[in-house]
Amino acid sequence: MSNEIILVGAGHMGYAMLEGWLGAEILKPEQVVVVEPAEALRDRVEEHGCAAVSSAADLGDDLKPQIIVLAIKPQMMNDILPDYKRFGAAETTFLSVAAGTSIATIEGHTGPSPVIRVMPNTPSAIGEGMLGVFANERVSDETMQFVDQLLVTSGDVVHVEREEQIDAITAISGSGPGYVFHFIEALTEAAKAVGFEEDTALLLAKQTIYGSACLAMESENSPTELRKQVTSPNGTTAAALAVLMEGDAMTKLVTRAVTAARDRAVELGK
Ligand SMILES: NC(=O)C1=CN([C@@H]2O[C@H](COP(=O)(O)OP(=O)(O)OC[C@H]3O[C@@H](n4cnc5c(N)ncnc54)[C@H](O)[C@@H]3O)[C@@H](O)[C@H]2O)C=CC1
Ligand SMILES: O=C(O)[C@@H]1CCC=N1
Description:
EC number: 1.5.1.2
Low-confidence stretches: none
Oligomer: single chain
Protein name: Pyrroline-5-carboxylate reductase
Number of strands: 8
Largest sheet: 8 strands, mixed
Number of helices: 11
CATH class of the largest domain: Alpha Beta
Strand content: 5-15%
Distance between the termini: 33 Å
Bound molecules: 1,4-dihydronicotinamide adenine dinucleotide, (2S)-3,4-dihydro-2H-pyrrole-2-carboxylic acid
Binding site for NADP(+): 71-74
Catalytic activity: L-proline + NAD(+) = (S)-1-pyrroline-5-carboxylate + NADH + 2 H(+); L-proline + NADP(+) = (S)-1-pyrroline-5-carboxylate + NADPH + 2 H(+)
Structural class: alpha/beta
Mean pLDDT: 96
CATH topology of the largest domain: Rossmann fold
Enzyme class: oxidoreductase
Helix content: 40-55%
Shape: elongated
CATH architecture of the largest domain: 3-Layer(aba) Sandwich
Strand order of the largest sheet: 3-2-1-4-5-6-7-8
């Protein structure tokens, strides 16, 4: 067994993580074989020097990968996993980034195997991801250490104690960039409504979110304290926050959204 990796699916998430691993030189391109039916996406990984095939049937008979990364849609798991049964119930670790898909579902196809569930997010593409991890008891310390080394190239990593917490992480940080991008859209539209052209409106919105996120990370103050520092008594921020915080409107809306995402993750796992 070498540290060979098979990456199944080189779409948004699979490719983002692969780029991080290669860029940080934790993996050499020759250690990775990608299975991806879309030709343009195979070309993209081949440009990095990785081998790429269009289906599992084209994988060499003698491959004994340390890890198979499953970066395919949860709805496709039951169709695709049988192609990887031959690597199951052995030393190969399955690492799934799919929302919802449980370890039991994966082992239902592979037999009892080391399985790690990772919930990344798209900022992983620039090394600023947030990743949740849960591993079953069959994963060796050696493989877990290697996987942690890979994952930190994508961003911050948190290990959870219970598998269902991955569904909750999915709803917060997995889907979270979607909420933040929507807030950028909303702030851009609002900037246009008060008189700015599209380009300026977008810059005002993006830089405000970026600067605020950086300050929240770097400051020793809590977000509550940072919010208070912006809010002059009877000033402009107070006028806006009176709208967003009336009856805890924003918190209730975000909690409803997160609960819907968590429930959908649970549903996808059935
Ligand atoms: N996009 C996101 O923000 C996040 C996605 N995820 C998870 O990552 C997984 C992939 O999602 P995305 O990358 O967004 O989707 P995507 O559609 O960009 O990527 C999936 C890839 O799988 C490929 N594929 C289809 N059939 C295949 C097969 N038989 N063998 C190998 N590859 C095959 C597709 O051609 C596609 O490139 C999903 O399970 C999702 O839940 C997790 C966290 C965040
Ligand atoms: O929307 C989804 O289902 C995936 C999982 C987390 C982010 N994107």
